[in-house]
Automatic annotation (TrEMBL):
NCBIfam families: glyox_I (TIGR00068). Its EC number is 4.4.1.5. The active site is at residue 143. Zn(2+) binds at residues 77, 95, 143. The lineage of its organism: Eukaryota, Viridiplantae, Streptophyta, Embryophyta, Tracheophyta. Its cofactor is Zn(2+). It comes from Gossypium raimondii (Peruvian cotton). This is Lactoylglutathione lyase. Keywords: Lyase, Metal-binding, Repeat, Zinc. One of its GO terms (cellular component) is cytoplasm. Binds 1 zinc ion per subunit. In the homodimer, two zinc ions are bound between subunits. It catalyses: (R)-S-lactoylglutathione = methylglyoxal + glutathione. It comes from the Eukaryota.
Amino acid sequence: MAEGSAAVPSTELLEWPKKDKRRFLHAVYRVGDLDRTIKFYTECFGMKLLRKRDIPEEKYSNAFLGFGPEESHFVVELTYNYGVTSYDIGTGFGHFAIATPDVYKMVEDIRAKGGNITREPGPVKGGSSVIAFVKDPDGYIFELIQRASTPEPLCQVMLRVGDLDRSVKFYEKALGMKVVKKVDRPEYKYSIAMMGYAEEHETTVLELTYNYGVTEYTKGNAYAQVCF
Protein backbone atom coordinates (compact mmCIF):
# COMPACT_ATOMS: atom_id res chain seq x y z
CA MET A 1 0.00 0.00 0.00
CA ALA A 2 1.37 3.42 -0.94
CA GLU A 3 2.33 5.68 1.92
CA GLY A 4 -0.39 8.15 2.73
CA SER A 5 -3.27 5.98 1.45
CA ALA A 6 -6.47 6.76 3.30
CA ALA A 7 -7.63 4.21 5.85
CA VAL A 8 -11.30 3.67 6.67
CA PRO A 9 -12.08 5.85 9.69
CA SER A 10 -12.99 3.94 12.82
CA THR A 11 -16.20 5.96 13.08
CA GLU A 12 -17.34 4.50 9.75
CA LEU A 13 -16.59 1.00 10.97
CA LEU A 14 -18.73 1.64 14.02
CA GLU A 15 -21.58 2.97 11.90
CA TRP A 16 -21.55 0.04 9.44
CA PRO A 17 -23.52 -2.40 11.64
CA LYS A 18 -26.32 0.17 11.97
CA LYS A 19 -26.67 0.21 8.18
CA ASP A 20 -26.39 -3.56 7.78
CA LYS A 21 -29.52 -4.78 5.98
CA ARG A 22 -28.75 -8.48 5.83
CA ARG A 23 -31.78 -10.73 6.23
CA PHE A 24 -33.31 -14.04 5.18
CA LEU A 25 -34.70 -13.70 1.64
CA HIS A 26 -36.36 -16.99 0.77
CA ALA A 27 -36.32 -20.76 1.28
CA VAL A 28 -36.20 -22.94 -1.83
CA TYR A 29 -37.76 -26.39 -1.92
CA ARG A 30 -39.36 -28.81 -4.35
CA VAL A 31 -43.02 -29.83 -4.58
CA GLY A 32 -44.87 -32.46 -6.59
CA ASP A 33 -47.85 -30.34 -7.63
CA LEU A 34 -47.30 -26.59 -7.76
CA ASP A 35 -50.94 -25.51 -8.04
CA ARG A 36 -51.99 -27.84 -5.21
CA THR A 37 -49.36 -26.38 -2.88
CA ILE A 38 -50.19 -22.79 -3.85
CA LYS A 39 -53.85 -23.47 -3.06
CA PHE A 40 -52.97 -24.96 0.32
CA TYR A 41 -50.65 -22.11 1.35
CA THR A 42 -53.00 -19.34 0.27
CA GLU A 43 -56.20 -20.89 1.65
CA CYS A 44 -54.87 -22.55 4.82
CA PHE A 45 -51.95 -20.31 5.83
CA GLY A 46 -53.15 -17.03 4.35
CA MET A 47 -50.03 -16.49 2.24
CA LYS A 48 -50.13 -14.46 -0.96
CA LEU A 49 -48.93 -15.65 -4.35
CA LEU A 50 -46.30 -13.02 -5.17
CA ARG A 51 -45.16 -14.30 -8.57
CA LYS A 52 -45.19 -17.44 -10.67
CA ARG A 53 -43.19 -18.40 -13.73
CA ASP A 54 -42.80 -21.34 -16.08
CA ILE A 55 -39.43 -22.20 -17.67
CA PRO A 56 -40.32 -24.88 -20.26
CA GLU A 57 -36.84 -24.96 -21.81
CA GLU A 58 -35.47 -26.00 -18.40
CA LYS A 59 -38.53 -28.15 -17.61
CA TYR A 60 -39.52 -26.50 -14.34
CA SER A 61 -41.90 -23.94 -12.85
CA ASN A 62 -41.68 -22.01 -9.62
CA ALA A 63 -43.76 -19.75 -7.44
CA PHE A 64 -42.96 -17.29 -4.66
CA LEU A 65 -45.35 -16.98 -1.72
CA GLY A 66 -45.29 -15.08 1.55
CA PHE A 67 -47.07 -12.68 3.87
CA GLY A 68 -45.71 -9.53 2.25
CA PRO A 69 -43.54 -8.22 -0.60
CA GLU A 70 -40.25 -10.00 -1.31
CA GLU A 71 -38.42 -6.70 -0.80
CA SER A 72 -39.30 -6.71 2.90
CA HIS A 73 -40.46 -10.23 3.86
CA PHE A 74 -39.09 -13.75 4.01
CA VAL A 75 -40.85 -15.89 1.38
CA VAL A 76 -40.91 -19.47 0.11
CA GLU A 77 -39.86 -20.40 -3.42
CA LEU A 78 -41.64 -23.55 -4.55
CA THR A 79 -40.08 -25.45 -7.43
CA TYR A 80 -41.90 -27.97 -9.59
CA ASN A 81 -39.76 -30.11 -11.91
CA TYR A 82 -41.75 -31.47 -14.85
CA GLY A 83 -42.90 -35.03 -14.25
CA VAL A 84 -41.59 -35.35 -10.67
CA THR A 85 -44.49 -35.84 -8.26
CA SER A 86 -42.73 -36.69 -4.99
CA TYR A 87 -39.47 -36.13 -3.12
CA ASP A 88 -37.58 -37.42 -0.10
CA ILE A 89 -37.55 -34.65 2.52
CA GLY A 90 -34.87 -36.42 4.56
CA THR A 91 -34.32 -36.10 8.30
CA GLY A 92 -32.14 -32.98 8.41
CA PHE A 93 -34.86 -30.51 7.52
CA GLY A 94 -37.22 -29.96 10.42
CA HIS A 95 -39.96 -27.42 9.75
CA PHE A 96 -40.98 -23.87 8.96
CA ALA A 97 -42.84 -21.78 11.53
CA ILE A 98 -45.70 -19.31 11.16
CA ALA A 99 -46.63 -16.84 13.90
CA THR A 100 -50.32 -16.13 14.42
CA PRO A 101 -52.34 -14.34 17.14
CA ASP A 102 -54.64 -17.36 17.63
CA VAL A 103 -53.25 -20.84 17.00
CA TYR A 104 -56.51 -22.54 18.00
CA LYS A 105 -58.52 -20.63 15.41
CA MET A 106 -55.93 -21.14 12.69
CA VAL A 107 -55.88 -24.89 13.34
CA GLU A 108 -59.67 -25.10 13.09
CA ASP A 109 -59.63 -23.14 9.83
CA ILE A 110 -56.96 -25.44 8.40
CA ARG A 111 -58.82 -28.53 9.59
CA ALA A 112 -62.04 -27.28 7.95
CA LYS A 113 -60.17 -27.02 4.65
CA GLY A 114 -58.90 -30.59 4.91
CA GLY A 115 -55.45 -29.86 6.34
CA ASN A 116 -53.46 -32.49 8.23
CA ILE A 117 -52.94 -31.46 11.88
CA THR A 118 -50.05 -33.52 13.28
CA ARG A 119 -49.95 -31.85 16.71
CA GLU A 120 -53.03 -30.31 18.29
CA PRO A 121 -52.66 -26.77 19.68
CA GLY A 122 -51.48 -26.40 23.25
CA PRO A 123 -48.55 -25.29 25.43
CA VAL A 124 -45.07 -26.64 24.72
CA LYS A 125 -43.65 -29.17 27.15
CA GLY A 126 -42.27 -27.35 30.15
CA GLY A 127 -43.36 -23.93 28.86
CA SER A 128 -46.28 -21.63 28.16
CA SER A 129 -45.93 -20.91 24.42
CA VAL A 130 -48.91 -22.26 22.49
CA ILE A 131 -48.00 -24.19 19.33
CA ALA A 132 -49.39 -26.69 16.85
CA PHE A 133 -48.00 -28.57 13.84
CA VAL A 134 -49.46 -28.96 10.36
CA LYS A 135 -48.25 -31.09 7.44
CA ASP A 136 -48.61 -29.71 3.91
CA PRO A 137 -49.55 -31.86 0.87
CA ASP A 138 -45.89 -32.69 0.13
CA GLY A 139 -45.07 -33.64 3.72
CA TYR A 140 -43.33 -30.43 4.84
CA ILE A 141 -44.07 -29.56 8.46
CA PHE A 142 -45.18 -26.11 9.60
CA GLU A 143 -45.17 -25.13 13.25
CA LEU A 144 -47.82 -22.59 14.25
CA ILE A 145 -46.68 -20.30 17.07
CA GLN A 146 -49.04 -18.06 19.01
CA ARG A 147 -47.77 -14.46 19.15
CA ALA A 148 -49.75 -11.28 19.72
CA SER A 149 -48.09 -9.52 16.80
CA THR A 150 -45.06 -9.92 14.56
CA PRO A 151 -43.58 -8.03 11.59
CA GLU A 152 -42.71 -11.37 9.95
CA PRO A 153 -45.31 -14.18 10.22
CA LEU A 154 -43.05 -16.67 8.39
CA CYS A 155 -40.72 -16.57 11.34
CA GLN A 156 -38.52 -19.68 11.55
CA VAL A 157 -36.70 -22.37 9.59
CA MET A 158 -35.69 -25.35 11.72
CA LEU A 159 -32.75 -27.56 10.74
CA ARG A 160 -31.27 -30.50 12.64
CA VAL A 161 -27.50 -30.52 13.08
CA GLY A 162 -24.96 -33.06 14.30
CA ASP A 163 -22.75 -30.61 16.22
CA LEU A 164 -24.46 -27.50 17.57
CA ASP A 165 -21.33 -25.53 18.48
CA ARG A 166 -19.75 -26.21 15.08
CA SER A 167 -22.88 -25.05 13.27
CA VAL A 168 -23.21 -21.91 15.42
CA LYS A 169 -19.62 -20.96 14.60
CA PHE A 170 -20.25 -21.49 10.90
CA TYR A 171 -23.31 -19.23 10.76
CA GLU A 172 -21.57 -16.59 12.87
CA LYS A 173 -18.38 -16.48 10.82
CA ALA A 174 -19.64 -17.28 7.32
CA LEU A 175 -22.96 -15.42 7.36
CA GLY A 176 -22.58 -12.91 10.17
CA MET A 177 -25.53 -14.17 12.21
CA LYS A 178 -25.76 -13.91 15.96
CA VAL A 179 -27.17 -16.28 18.55
CA VAL A 180 -30.41 -14.72 19.79
CA LYS A 181 -31.36 -17.60 22.09
CA LYS A 182 -29.83 -20.88 23.20
CA VAL A 183 -31.65 -23.55 25.21
CA ASP A 184 -30.54 -26.93 26.54
CA ARG A 185 -33.27 -29.40 27.52
CA PRO A 186 -31.50 -32.44 28.99
CA GLU A 187 -34.80 -33.89 30.19
CA TYR A 188 -35.84 -34.18 26.52
CA LYS A 189 -32.29 -34.81 25.24
CA TYR A 190 -31.97 -31.90 22.86
CA SER A 191 -30.48 -28.40 22.59
CA ILE A 192 -31.41 -25.54 20.27
CA ALA A 193 -29.82 -22.30 19.10
CA MET A 194 -31.85 -19.54 17.47
CA MET A 195 -29.73 -17.54 15.01
CA GLY A 196 -30.48 -14.49 12.91
CA TYR A 197 -29.80 -10.85 12.17
CA ALA A 198 -32.20 -9.49 14.82
CA GLU A 199 -34.23 -10.79 17.76
CA GLU A 200 -36.59 -13.67 17.00
CA HIS A 201 -39.73 -11.54 17.51
CA GLU A 202 -38.43 -8.98 15.01
CA THR A 203 -37.47 -11.11 12.01
CA THR A 204 -37.07 -14.64 10.61
CA VAL A 205 -34.57 -16.81 12.49
CA LEU A 206 -32.84 -20.12 11.93
CA GLU A 207 -33.54 -22.72 14.62
CA LEU A 208 -30.70 -25.24 14.87
CA THR A 209 -31.64 -28.38 16.79
CA TYR A 210 -29.17 -30.87 18.21
CA ASN A 211 -30.59 -34.19 19.42
CA TYR A 212 -28.28 -35.84 21.96
CA GLY A 213 -26.10 -38.49 20.36
CA VAL A 214 -27.28 -37.93 16.77
CA THR A 215 -24.39 -36.73 14.60
CA GLU A 216 -25.76 -37.30 11.08
CA TYR A 217 -29.01 -36.80 9.19
CA THR A 218 -30.17 -37.68 5.70
CA LYS A 219 -30.41 -34.78 3.26
CA GLY A 220 -33.06 -36.14 0.91
CA ASN A 221 -33.71 -34.30 -2.36
CA ALA A 222 -36.66 -32.04 -1.53
CA TYR A 223 -35.34 -29.17 0.58
CA ALA A 224 -32.81 -27.12 -1.37
CA GLN A 225 -31.53 -23.98 0.41
CA VAL A 226 -32.14 -20.78 2.32
CA CYS A 227 -31.09 -17.60 0.53
CA PHE A 228 -29.75 -14.52 2.32
